[in-house]
Amino acid sequence: MKKSFEVRLHGRGGQGGVTCAKILAAVYAHLGHSVQTFGDYASERSGAPVRAYTRVGNEPITNRNKVYEPDEVLVLDDSLLGADTLDGLVDGGALLVNSPLSIEVFDQKYSTSTAPFTTGVIDATAIARKHGIGTRSVVIVNTTIAGAYARIHDVPLEALKQTYTDLGLISNFPAALEAYESVEYRGPVDGAHVEKHMATQVTLPEVEQIIDHVSSSGTGLATGSWSSQKPSYVENLAPCNAWCPAGNDVVGFIGALETSEQAAAEILGQSTPLAAVCGRVCPAPCMEACNRAEYDGAVNIRGLERWIADTIPVAVKKVARVSNAKRIAIIGGGPAGLAAAYEIAKAGHAASIYEGEKELGGVLRTGIPVYRLARPALDQEIENILALGVEAHCDEFLTANRMAEIEAEYDAVIIASGLQKLRGLEVDGAQLAGIEQGIQYLHRVNLPEDGKSPVESAAIQGHVVVLGGGNTAMDCARSALRAGANKVTVAYRRSFDEMPAIKEEIEEAGREGIVFAMLRQPVGFSGTDNLSGVVLAEVDLGEPDDSGRRRPITSTRTAVMDCDAVLLALGQTEDYGLLPEGWELPWGSERRVTAGNRGEILVFGAGDIATGEGTVTHAIGSGRRAAGLALAALSAVDVNDVPLDETHIFQRPDRTTAIPVTDIRLDHFARAQADTEQTIDPMQAVKNFNQVNNGLRSKQELHRCFSCGHCTECDTCLVYCPEGIIRRLTDEGTPYEVDYSYCKGCGICVEECPRSAMEMSS
Amino acid sequence: MSNLNPKANLQFISANHAAAMAATLAGRANRNARGFGGGIYPITPQTECIEYLSKQDIEKGSVVRVESEHSAMGVCIGMALSGARTFTASSSNGLSYMAENVFAAGFYRLPMVMMAVNRTMGPPWNIWVDHGDTLMLRDSGWIQMYCEDNQEVLDSILFAYRLAETANILLPAMVCQDAFVLSHTMMMTDIPSQEQVDEYLPDLNLPHRVADRAVTVGGLDFPHETEAHRHQHHDAMMRVFDVYKDCQVEFKKVFGREIPDPVVGYKTEDAEVLLVSMGTVASTARAAVDSLRDQGIKAGSVRLRLFRPFPHLLLEKMLASAERIAFIDRNVSPGMGGIMWSEGRVTAPKDALVQNYMIGLGGGDIRPEMLEKVFADLLSREQAGPPQIVEVGA
Fold first, then answer.
1. pLDDT of residue A646
2. What is the ipTM of this complex?
């Protein structure tokens, strides 16, 4: 090693320049040299230009001056490059700069291509950011650039690693290693000389009496040049928005509700025509994802959605037909079909729904009992959709031939016929009287014959056993209890944790007195002509299956449970019977149907028949997407050329990008209990089919929303800015402006933003 | 690392950190007596020191965080009076706020140690080095030492305890170091073991402690009593020169390192032209001396390490052969000039030309080239002029 040498570091307050100089000194100390390191202190404020120094020698170091003729210069922020930074750098020395530029571009920009010193360039900021070094608001590059230094100056990696360990920085070593491997550099050009403007020699004052005191130069400094990063306002993804399968802007409608129900309804109407429905029966994945859940309970989003839709219809009122309106047929009037029709009508095209039942609604009408979903709410929302000019052809179950005719007649077709095939149970006694499919039973409950009440239509006596664990099972069990059963037992082959039914439904069923027999597999029925009991085998749970749930293993331990009726709620599957010969409906997405040698035709699947996701809200999202794809295909020059990710087609957001609760400044929020809906006492509720849940008493729950990732103009940034350079604007859309000519990039506004609606960027 | 003991326990730390380690070791060494304590209050550039100290676990020790420097010294006085080994640290305007109690600690003859980081007095605010803050307290009855490097800061604190606690001294001691140039500069520092420090610092036995019996301190002194007290105090100060030597010998024996003399010379034997300075300026002066010697000029440098008591005789001996002497003050007493010059000029040979330069005020970086210019100015003079403030720029 050279006998002795001096290093000068140029950085900005907050980048860790002093620590970087310390790392270099510590490495050389580890290698057995005398070392000294110190920083310039004063303007330690974030972003201010700062210097730090390291001296290395083989003899004890006594010089305590600053470094004026450095052998090595490190620049942590390329905006600091200039005469000051290169001042005194000796010929044959080395310059290492943190810059996103390639070395070729760097040389060109800073005229270093013929410099008499080694030049190295490393994008330490990008590497440090990638490795998450620093805080959310400020990236710290010191430990990264030291890796690049080690490469250029032949510092053994082992020594560097040991130093990081000694200094407690070992978690930053991978970033240093990446910099070590990726730094670009080249040696000095012999005999070349750096331009004079780059190296200005400071002349010391003469020894003489000071006559007039030197006046200090006014700063006139626009300190914005200090910043290596700037804050800005951004719209980040809230977990509720990320998790809503229908694509509702939850943060948006709750924010707007503060102003009025009208404003909130307008936002909801962008994504769903069925807010009153979802406000009653949605399993609300948004509430499970809500960042408030871990703090003091999720915001009652479902309740707020219902509040809005029960106050004012959310569907858009009137849309003019576009001049070249397309005609699209929709097969099935359930939630997927209704959402698709709404989306098409909203875009100014013509939608016609084909429904087998007498009225639209699908499972909302035939499956979900009225005590959960009051029919006036459903009827109103369907009416709103039809008011946009959507045609309804009801009371005709389609055949494959009829489907082929429809396909020929319309520009495009969306098949949203749901899951029509019912799973049975092939065991001894399955033919006995008293065993009925749950779906058929619910049909009787929900669509009573003329003149009959639901209780009359669905009358059932004695002990009713429901087999299954989904929402159909819950609906059957609770309906049976209301229709005359004196005891209802739900038998399910797995445990509570694995039940696919909505959690609140299971809880309500329990409160109403329904008995649960978990880990029981029906293996037969007893009785001669009429059912007298169900044979249940005990189930053991084995290894997890593909769905992650533990696989049920039926044992030989059986017992007969006496009963008077059994309702089968074992699930439904796709019925492709209405597809003409040769048609194939892709599974798992809303892609186009293939029809033999015609290839892909303009027929799309939507809802459960395409995706099998099984909830109303998933069906709405799927219907929206199928409609978007159909419209995109129809407006494209080449239908095969429509990318699936076209931005105007609804897509579920990337949930991994949602704001985690750790990015919310909980200190800014007082704890408050969630507001709950008014419900009827379970003992009263089971006496009839009246609506159990009567909604929120007020909209005050909206104040509990964190508004994750969405600026609410709370002024926290403005209040916390130490420079006072965040100002309120009156223009719509941009609530604040940051005066970047004075912003030092300290990141406090970003750090303090209660809801992560700001970010720092280079 | 040729100058260091191969068995050394070297750590790469700042002088602030080194001072805190010394205080910790000294504090633990009194665990079999009446323990250790102090009141602390932060001020740049001393903060790192008390931060480190307050994190230490010291058996029979209590470091109290208070609301001001005045109270910090108040806590020290109380603890010291009860017989504890005591430490605090401050700087600049913190020292001026503490001043009333600094005098009290001196006049109560309490052998505590304070680490002072020399920082320019404000306003306007300036955080960099200038010796004016501790020199303001030169008459408070404290011993004052000014250090030149990191190791010397650590060693001087241990040394100061030994000196201050000696039975015929019993005076508080201030160990001074230059802001940032030492306080925040990291260098390899040899940290002694607890056993070594235990050996060097016997249990503190304060004869007038209040712990065992009622003692009135700070009552009314009539003129004649004050005369007697001042006389005793001054005598104790003047005994420091002898005790200093004993403590040096013991230090070498226990730690294997030298404690520098009260006055440290460099190439003074045949020097015709001398620079006298305090603190880290002496390092820079030596570089300038080497440069002048290369040009054939008989230059030398003197560092005043002990400022109270003022080592007149030692300095006189060091300056004996000089024809031209520059007192390099990093302070100014407005209306007088450099404080070291005003006190030390009487030790110069009768015929010598003595010039005062006040340089690096407010922390300007004094480069060797600047001191070479001072030498040149000194050599070019026909006679001494009034004290002169010299500009060094940034």
1. 54
2. 0.89
- Which of B3, B149, B390 is nearest residue A207 as measured by Cβ atoms? B390
CATH 3.40.920.10 fits A4-198, yes or no: yes
Q: Choose the mutation target among A84, A207, A208 for the interface with B, i.e. most B CBs under 10 Å.
A: A207
- Summarised one tens digit per residue, pLDDT across range B58-67 is 999 999 999 9
List the single residue in B180, B370, B392 with the smallest CB-CB distance to A41. B180
Residue A479's pLDDT is 95
Look at residue A199 in the predicted model and tell me its pLDDT: 44
pTM, 2 dp:
0.65
Nearest CA in chain A to B288: A63
pLDDT of the residue at A197: 40
Check CB contact of A42 with chain B, cutoff 8 Å: yes
Distance CA B369, CA B324 (A): 19
Does A190 touch chain B if contact means CB atoms closer than 8 Å?
Answer: no
A64 contact partners, CB below 8 Å, separation of at least 6: A36, B181, B182, B185, B280, B283, B284
CB atoms B391 and A59 under 8 Å: no
Give yes or no for residue B385 having a pLDDT over 90.
yes
- Determine how many CB atoms are found less than 10 A away from the CB of residue B382: 6
> Is the bond preceding residue B45 a cis peptide, omega within 30 degrees?
yes
Amino acid code (one letter) for A221: L
Residue B370 C-alpha, separation from nearest chain A C-alpha, in angstroms: 7
Closest residue by Cα to residue B12 from B216, B150, B172, B140:
B150
Q: What residue in B sits closest to A42 (Cα-Cα)?
A: B127
Interface test with B, best of A65, A163, A166, A215 (most B CBs within 10 A): A65
User: How far does B339 lie from chain A, in Å, by closest CA?
Assistant: 18
Number of C-alpha atoms within 13 angstroms, CB side, residue A443?
11
**DSSP helix/strand/coil, B155:** helix
Confidence category of residue B3, pLDDT binned at 50, 70, 90 = very low
User: What CATH class is the domain A423-570?
Assistant: alpha beta
| Domain ranges for chain A | 4-198, 226-235+711-761, 327-420+574-641, 423-570
* Contact check, Cβ <8 Å, A38/B377: no
Which phi and psi angles does A207 have, rounded to 5°?
A: -80, 100
Nearest Cβ partner for A64 among B1, B186, B283? B283
pLDDT tens digits for A368-384? Answer: 999 999 999 999 999 99
CATH for A327-420+574-641 (3.40.630.30, 3.40.50.300, 3.50.50.60, 3.30.450.20): 3.50.50.60
Chain A nearest-CA residue for B184: A38
Q: Count of A–B CB contacts within 8 Å?
A: 85
Query: Can you tell me the distance from the alpha carbon of A423 to that of A567, in angstroms, rounded to the nearest whole number?
Result: 12
pLDDT tens-place string over residues B290-329: 999 999 999 999 999 999 999 999 999 999 999 999 999 9
Residues of chain A with pLDDT under 70: 1-2, 43-45, 190-202, 209-221, 637-648
The CATH architecture that domain B264-390 belongs to is 3-Layer(aba) Sandwich (3.40)
Closest to A668 measured CA to CA, from A301, A305, A291: A291
Are residues A64 and B185, on separate chains, in Cβ contact within 8 Å? yes
Facing A209 at nearest CB: one of B127, B388, B393: B388
Q: What is the pLDDT of residue A43?
A: 59
Q: B10-255 in CATH: which number?
A: 3.40.50.970
Residues of chain A with C-beta less than 8 angstroms from the C-beta of B376: 207
Residues 237-296 of B with CB under 8 A from A: 280, 283-284, 286-287
Chain A CB within 8 Å of residue B355 CB: no
Six token digits for residue B341: 């010059």
Between CA A634 and CA A624 the distance in angstroms is 15
Identity (one letter) of the amino acid at A397?
A: F
